[in-house]
Amino acid sequence: MQLFSSMIRHSGASSSLSSFSRQLFSRTTTTSASGEHGGVWGMLAVGASLLGFGVGAIMKESEGVVVANASSNTLQAAHYPWNHRFPWQSFDHASIRRGYQVYKTVCATCHGLQFIAWRHLIDAGFTEAEVKAMAAEYDYVDGADETGDPVARPGKLTDYLPKPYANEESARFANNGALPPDLSDIVKARVGHEDYIFSLLVGYRDPPAGKHYGDGIFYNPYFPTGGIKMPQALTDGQIDFEDGTYASISQMSKDITTFLAWCGEPETDTRKRMGIKAMAILFLMFVPTAYYKRHRWTMVKHTVISFTKTPPHISIPKGVPKHKPHGPSEH
Ligand code: HEC
User: Nearest residue CA, atom 2 of ligand 1?
Assistant: First the structure.
């Protein structure tokens, strides 16, 4: 109901319609008490209110009105046409590639991707040789030398992406007390998913006049409460994308969001491909299955069994109960 009322509040024409129906309705209650036309008026009023709701709903869609939640200052993210949103669409792999570049250059300073190993990146826009080289850029502590000191070696495909901080305390200490969340599942973990992450990244602006956030808190209307402890991390032209794409804030935000969506569900493309194949096979199998079912059941469905009394002129042998049906097999 709250949704309906806010829809009506936001679209002018429908609100006048609904107030019209409200007026109608209040007249109805008086007339219905006094006269017999009340029923007709009542039906008309209900019809008009329904029309009001319907038009309100349609207006909401067509005008693109954003329904704001009046109890908070948070903005809802708009819907964006992500490449991978529908069951028949795959990830934009060029975007995943650029997204990784954004992660590595910008976000990896503060955020980890603890569930992503280097090997996962193979075929997600990168070749095996590329991923091996990417992993080898980082050193991993593995084992100890003869004196017991830890030894570092270059990363391998089976290693997980390096963490930015050794522990939670150092992460909080470096970020004004806030913990930068791990980004492996962040797209799935937030209401609004990709739309929210994208809006958050492009949503930094000056706080509205009269609003003051403390030191190290930045205004972002998409973040619940409006004050986030993550600074604006992206600036126009900050990265030279290897494919020549211009790195505007929105381009980088789109690419990192696609990359993070992939991190949350790296199996998406395979799953969708399997799904499409399975649906195609099931559809093809339906035709012979339907035919076979009809074929097998024809006899059963079209056999008529009727039970009749024995005609009087047929003599029944002694000992046979009078009404017991008997067929040829009994002779
Ligand atoms: C300087 C450190 C830093 C950098 C760089 C940084 N972040 Fe953050 N990020 C934070 C901190 C700190 C928080 C927690 C903010 C809070 O809770 O107020 C955060 C929170 C987030 C959140 C969660 C918001 C929520 O709804 O809880 C997302 C998503 C995010 N960052 C994405 C990114 C992406 C993508 C990048 C790279 C483009 C990036 N961050 C770069 C420090 C950083």
Answer: 110
**Phi then psi dihedrals of residue 154, to 5 deg:** -65, 150
Atom nearest to 175 CA in ligand 1 = 12
**Distance from the Cα of residue 314 to its chain's centroid:** 77
- How many A from CA of 141 to the centre of ligand 1? 27
Q: Count other Cβ atoms within 10 Å, centred on residue 300.
A: 7
Among 300, 307, 312, 299, smallest CA distance to 326 is for 307
By the 10 Å C-beta count (0-12 exposed, 13-18 middle, 19+ buried), 241 is classed as middle
Residue 140: helix, strand or coil by DSSP?
A: strand
pLDDT beneath 50, residues of the chain = 1-40, 43-44, 46-47, 50-71, 331
pLDDT value, residue 280: 95
pLDDT at residue 41 in the model: 53
The ligand 1 site (C-beta within 6 Å) comprises 102, 106-107, 109-111, 175, 178, 180-181, 186, 190, 197, 200-201, 223, 228-231, 233-234, 256
Name the 3-class secondary structure at 130.
helix
Residue type, 236: D
> pTM of the full predicted structure?
0.72
Query: How is 219-284 classified by DSSP, letter by letter?
Result: E-TTSTTSEESS-----TT-S--TT-----HHHHHHHHHHHHHHHH-TTHHHHHHHHHHHHHHHHH
Dist. CA 164–CA 34, nearest whole Å: 77
Per-residue pLDDT, 10? 38
